[in-house]
Amino acid sequence: MCTVMDRELYKRTTPITVMEVSTSHGVCVWTVPLCILCGGVRLTGGSVLYCTLYCSHILAGLIIHRLWCGDSSTPSSTSPLIHFLFLHVQWTFHPSPKRIPCPNMASSKNLTRFWEWGRKIICVGRNYTEHAKELKNAVPTEPVLFLKTPSAYVREGAPILMPYYTDNLHHEVELGVVIGRGGKDINQSSAMDHVEGYALCLDMTARDVQDQCKQKGLPWTLAKAFDTSCPISDLISKDTIKDPHNVNIWLKVNDVLRQEGSTSSMIFSIPFLISYISRVITLEEGDLILTGTPKGVAAVQENDEMVAGIDDIISMRFQIKKQS
Ligand code: MG
After folding, report:
1. Distance of CA 191 to the CA centre of its chain
2. What is the C-alpha separation between 136 and 134, in angstroms, rounded?
3. How far is the CA of 136 from the centre of ligand 1 (A)?
4. What's the gap in Å between 131 CA and the centre of ligand 1?
5. Residue 202 Cα to ligand 1 middle (Å)
6. C-alpha–C-alpha distance, residues 266 and 245, integer Å
7. Which CATH class, in words, describes the domain spanning 111-322?
8. What phi and psi, each to the nearest 5 degrees, are found at residue 18?
9. CA of 244 to the centre of ligand 1 (A)
10. Which of 316, 267, 274 shows the shortest CA–CA distance to 292?
11. SS3 of residue 27 by DSSP
């Protein structure tokens, strides 16, 4: 992958190299391996591409020199040394460009607290047939995606705040997938290698607002992405949930069971979703994917107590409060 560092070095050095080589004498047959050696020592990541570009410009400079100057003299014994020293000085003394982290670079971030720094919450709508039907939506033939912002995260101990503009706040219990290794255009066959673990999540939804948005053809942001709209549990390791397509997720409101469904009923599997999403949005370490909710979504009121869980693996409790 060509990094920003590579591009900056490429821009910085190319004019100088062409000029310098164009005014030299003859073909320096061992300049190319010297450049590769020097570049390999000086650079990490992308050095092969960088050196290839560098060497191609050296050769271009030599061709220009021969065509324009008509110089066919035997290479001087000092020319290669001049080339090497020039390149070495350039690589040694120019300031190192700032390195921009790539999505798949190793990171020291603490994934067990991904909600503190993760950048994206990507949600899948209508991924369970019975839920699509209960809201009178067509069963989708490809994933329905929308986003929440990181400020939607809320943890046990803090309340879910019902926005002032809704009278119909719904719960949607969902299995969340936490991305441990980022990527773009991820294949389904390797998709699970990008998963760090799972989380129990609620996709709190201002249903009346969402209905209005759907009628007007407007985005769902007010209905789905408000602060505290994404309550989450601790990170659950992949070892704890061996088969994420065969667990039961459930939710009770004031001790009454409202939702219960198996993740085996998902329309689109987790590898498919990761592959599909990553073709559109680069996945990064700490991102969260909400995989949809089973049937049984319904309204909650102020002071209601919700308890949700994944089998008996994990549970979490939240109370509803009105936004002041
Ligand atoms: Mg949902």
Report:
1. 13
2. 5
3. 15
4. 10
5. 8
6. 8
7. alpha beta
8. -60, -45
9. 17
10. 267
11. coil
Which position has the token pair 């985005």? 219
d(CA 111, CA 218): 34
Long-range contacts of 240-243 (CB under 8 A, 24+ apart): 240/197, 240/198, 240/313, 241/197, 241/198, 241/310, 241/313
Output the CA 185–ligand 1 centroid distance in Å: 24
How remote is the CA of residue 145 from the centroid of ligand 1, in Å?
10
Q: Ligand 1: distance of its center to the CA of 158 in Å?
A: 21
CA separation, residue 179 to residues 23, 25, 148, 194, 272 (Å): 53, 55, 16, 6, 14
pTM for the model stands at: 0.68
Q: Report the separation in Å between the CA atom of 176 and the middle of ligand 1, taken as the mean of its atom positions.
A: 10
Domain boundaries in the chain?
4-93, 111-322
Residue-by-residue pLDDT tens, the chain, 324 positions: 444 444 444 444 444 444 444 444 444 455 555 555 545 555 544 455 555 655 565 666 566 556 655 555 544 444 555 555 555 555 545 544 444 444 445 567 899 999 999 999 999 999 999 998 999 899 899 999 999 999 999 999 999 999 999 999 999 999 999 999 999 999 999 999 999 999 999 999 999 999 999 999 999 999 999 999 999 999 999 999 999 999 999 999 999 999 999 999 999 999 999 999 999 999 999 999 999 999 999 999 999 999 999 999 999 999 999 998
User: Tokens for 234?
Assistant: 């601790």
